[in-house]
């Protein structure tokens, strides 16, 4: 009877011994299973999930500091994380624990929980300027779509400036690439659809404008979407001439050296196709005086248009 009674007792002791002898299992970090972003080089501000097998006390989430390093428990020295892929960072952390004699052969796993070092900024003549993190490479068109597309005032080019993180998280700004809007949107040229990996600034400058004032039906201003326009196109935007316009019109232009010039053009001959059409440049003011009335000075018109609120301000003043 005693032997039979002892068997369950001995079995419990044996099972308890087996349980204790099992190696401790690695505890999962909070939300670890749900967070595993595409692998890209780490940088300042990124949040990392560092897990060391069988070492739950050393496993934790850490954020890369502004100088590009991370601090981990029991390590005397910081670990440089800038520019390292998760696999490379795993090796660097394991080596740090080995070099300081803390762990013999640590099995390290690094996952990226949040990106903060790979911003892409899209601004300028877009419908909704936006800044977002490039969790994976995206194209220029995808970035423009995140900004809800271009506005009607968008110019003919998109400027893409790339920045990279150097040693110790120092930001280095590279060259600016120019991409023609027409090539990107209409031609289907894949070389224009740049791949963005984070650290880029995408800027869409507004198109230059031409102002049409004077003896026209609707003084106006319009954007030069393709970079240039002609006098006849400007007249079309302003819905044509009023009666009694002079034979000569004037283009007021600011030259590259900053000086203003007055360029007379043969308006009637251009309309009658007896003279070639004249090309207009960004910020030109086309002024058509009324025949028999005193012509406004270049200084007065330039002030009204550039300072007073554009062609609408001119129209309001001359209608009084």
Q: If you had to describe this structure to a student in words, what would you say it looks like?
A:
With 320 residues, the protein is an alpha+beta fold. The protein folds into three domains: 91 residues, wza like fold; 86 residues, Outer membrane lipoprotein wza fold like; 110 residues, Outer membrane lipoprotein wza fold like (Roll), CATH 3.10.560. The chain is 24% helix and 28% strand. The chain has eight helices and 19 strands. Strands 7-6-12-9-10 form a five-stranded mixed beta sheet. The chain has a five-stranded mixed beta sheet with strand order 14-13-19-16-17, with helices on both faces. Strand 3 and strand 4 form a beta hairpin. The protein is rod-shaped and about 95 Å long. It starts with a helix and ends with a helix. The N terminus is likely disordered.
């Amino acid at each position: 009877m005693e032997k039979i009674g002892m068997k369950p007792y001995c079995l419990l002791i044996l099972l308890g011994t087996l349980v204790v002898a099992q190696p401790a299992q690695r505890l999962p970090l909070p939300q670890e299973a749900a967070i595993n972003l595409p692998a890209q080089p780490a940088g300042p501000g990124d949040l990392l999930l560092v897990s060391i097998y069988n070492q739950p006390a050393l496993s934790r989430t850490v954020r890369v500091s502004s100088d590009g390093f991370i601090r981990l428990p029991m390590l005397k020295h910081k670990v440089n994380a800038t520019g390292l892929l998760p696999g490379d960072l795993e090796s660097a952390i394991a080596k740090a624990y080995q070099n300081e004699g803390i762990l013999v052969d640590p099995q390290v796993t690094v996952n990226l929980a949040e990106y903060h070092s790979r911003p892409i900024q899209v601004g300028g003549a877009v419908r909704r300027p936006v800044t977002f993190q490039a969790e994976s490479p995206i194209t220029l068109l995808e970035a423009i779509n995140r900004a809800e597309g271009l506005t009607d005032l968008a110019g003919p080019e998109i400027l893409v400036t790339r920045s990279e993180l150097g040693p110790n998280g120092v930001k280095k700004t590279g060259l600016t690439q120019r991409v023609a809007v027409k090539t990107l949107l209409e031609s289907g040229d894949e070389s224009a659809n740049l791949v963005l990996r984070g650290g880029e600034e995408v800027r869409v400058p507004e198109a230059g404008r031409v102002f049409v004032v004077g003896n026209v039906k609707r003084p106006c201003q319009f954007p030069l979407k393709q970079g240039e326009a002609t006098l006849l196109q400007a007249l079309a935007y302003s819905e044509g001439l009023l009666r009694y316009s002079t034979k000569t019109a004037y283009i007021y232009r600011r030259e590259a050296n900053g000086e203003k010039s007055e360029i007379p053009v043969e308006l009637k001959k251009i309309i009658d196709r007896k003279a070639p059409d004249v090309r207009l440049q960004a910020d030109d003011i086309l002024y058509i005086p009324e025949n028999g009335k005193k012509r406004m000075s270049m200084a007065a018109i330039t002030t009204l248009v550039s300072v007073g609120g554009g062609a609408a301000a001119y129209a309001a003043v001359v209608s009084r």
